[in-house]
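Objective 1.3, modelling of assemblies. Example input:
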Amino acid sequence: MQTLKHYFMFLQIYVKQSKRKWLTFPLILLSPIIMIGATLFLSVQALQTEEAEPIRIGIVNDDQSEEITMLIDVLMEAQEAFEQYVHMEVLDETSAQEQMDENTLSAYVVFPANFIEDLFYGQEVLLEMVGNKQKQVESIVVKEIVDSVMRHINTSQANILLINHYAKKFIDDKEVRNEFLFEQFMSFFMYALSKDKIVSTDEVTNIATSSLYLYYGLSAFFIISTIWLWIVYLFLYREEADRMSVRIRLYGVTLTQQLLAKLTIVLGIHFILSFGLFFLFKNIFDLPLDGEDYGRITTIFALYSVIVVAILAMIEMLITSLKGRLLLQLITILLFLISSGAIVPTIYFPLYVQDWLPYIYSYEALFWLQEIILNGRLYAAYAPLAWMAVVAMLLMLAIAFVKGRRTI
Amino acid sequence: MKQMLYMRWLHMKRQLYSILFWLFIPFIATVVLVQLLDVVKDDTSIPVGFVIKEETPLTLELAKKLEEESFFTIHLLDEKEALNQLEKHELDSVFIVREGYDEKLEKGNRHKLIHGYESDMSFAYVSTIETIQSLVQQQASRYKAANEVAKLYRQFDIPIDVTEEELIERSKEIEAERTLLHTSMKYRGDEQHTSNAASFFSPTFIWVFISFLTTFFLFDWVIKEKNAHVATRFLFTKKSVTTYLLEHFILYTVGLFMIDVIVFFIFHFLYNEQISWTFFLTLFLCRYVWNSSAFLISMWIKRPFIFYLTGLSITFVAIVTYVIGITAQSTWFTFLHPMEILLQGNYMNVWPILNSVLLIIIFIRKEDSYVART
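Predicted structure (tokens):
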């Protein structure tokens, strides 16, 4: 009886505290939404600017042979297909450097002297690329393109060496053979460049994600509500609380009672907020959910929230340093959000990580939310999440119990 | 000067371990994260469904080759199952190898050998297609080469003494034996070649953001000391609180910069990060911007807890906007983002100027406080 009385008394204290701050509260809650909004806005901007300006690449030719000129000509013709993205230009090294200093060139590639001849006779060739430090991302893209072209040249070269091996038997004159080989090389190279027609493409729409936005919408809901939970939790933090709680405990109130009261309020506020957010989410996407679906979603979401709060409370009890506590809570929240698959879908994770995912509560929670909302499943397995919630709560209570004994 | 250092030491002595921890955590965390990202990056896999309509040596070879590419995990499935999984987004993309693959390839006909399916959620379809195309291309050009050799024999009217299989084998050998063409990359102005040019998440990148956050965590001394009971006593001395705080702000900036320099020397040896005089100049400018930002914000916040949270949110926004912003390339972005100074080497930034102006304003305003007024 006494326990319950204490519990309710602290409930009241926390309610009062949250009322006192309620004006600043909406502002803080908006922050994750503003951040995600800014993210979307910037990504749209980023995509637009990328289309506007093609990446400029310089080609510096130190090999003055006739063949290389033809090879470069072929490259120049091939670039027409992707003129919007890449623009190539033949330059000499000094003007390439000048343009790079003026920040108009992203990178340039140097074909070394005797490039073609070394290529035909199996000598090692090094192709050097110089990137612009002020355009590092574009330089990396250029490097990818160059690597891809080089792979084609490499394959062509291996076959040229094979043909050369047999051509030696028939053609004695080196000049004539070189010419023949170059013809072959060009035909192989052009053959490689026209590989685009090997694969034909069809697009499949996901059954559940009839709109892609719904998928990302659910992820965004999951992320925002998790961050909100942390914000609400931090919001009820009082710097003087640590000293006060020791004094309160002298009156026979245990740490556990104080803690449970706080968590009840945190979860209460959190549920109201999340309900509002979910309602918004449901209306935007016009989800056909019935009563039972709501029951399943609520259960899963409640179990998930309990585990998050229990973990946050454990960190708070175990780490006395305020900064350390914040950092560790941040890392934990981030780790669990990443492993849930809300940021990057879990199918892209390393396989050994995927094996462990079912044991992670955030993955389990988001998985069932997706099954219900996206795939229209009429079933959810609560047992794993429920067990995890029980374990987390017990662990938290054990820590609170031990800590409560120690500090007095 | 000596007095100042002594005073700082008196302050730090009490929480030495905590301060040491926050001073060195950026370095330690960077080393750990770089290691971790390296492992994860190598093990990230794109699940690709592969449907072989007719199992032949060449199609199986293609599947095997694709599996060998470290980025892909190949699931051999039948068409229905594969498309079903793609719809549920359990696969990134599906590729169907059509019947008669071998015959067409041997004849040199490459048209629509493979049919690819992407879903509206495929992230890696373009790069998968590129890989598959170059693998098919490899197989196709071997047959082309064999044909060319056969043509040579015919041209000179000599009966062929090698079989096609032998030629194909020989071509494979040559390619395995020698990869003769290498590419290297360096940035203009750098002497050395960058080994890991193809990574956005360089050690510097990771260090910059962690360091930014810990700068805020370290600057709680301003709040603690300006709100301390002794602070009123400054009114009776020659120095004002603001002068005192500013002096120690400079001390912190120099001290932290020295640690930064050491860290980058270590990074230079560990990860081959470029260091030069100009780099250290940008590093100093960067350090100045962070410290002055933390200092200025701490001047008008009363509770450390709120200060930490502010630091945390600013760091978060900085990371998100930076990751998106690198692709944006807009000029106002490079002008506004504080991390651009170090990461892209752009001096033209609003923060050094703005912060300096604010610092000067604070410094001039300081004479305002007299004993009588308080």
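The radius of gyration of chain A is 32 Å.
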